[in-house]
């Protein structure tokens, strides 16, 4: 059997897809933060989001990552709801 041409650090398909989910969530959060009217609040939320993602960047356990994505999506929805209420 031929040796794999992939480097040993290559991601599995599942890891690759999970990574895409995380990056997509991060981008959505940053886009939602742009709509925050107060500059200080925007800066605080952006720093918070960066720190949360940076703090968890080395997570490898599948269940933990899935749980963090779910929590992140819930926090994103809450932020979007809050912004929508503030506009009305």
From TrEMBL:
Q: Does the keyword Mitochondrion apply?
A: yes
Q: Which CDD domains match?
A: Complex1_LYR_LYRM2
* GO CC aspect terms: mitochondrion
Q: Where would you say this protein principally sits, based on its record?
A: mitochondrion
Role description: Involved in efficient integration of the N-module into mitochondrial respiratory chain complex I.
What the record says about family reads:
Belongs to the complex I LYR family.
Mind telling me which PANTHER family this protein's record contains?
Answer: LYR MOTIF-CONTAINING PROTEIN 2 (PTHR13675:SF0)
- The identity of this protein, by name, is LYR motif-containing protein 2
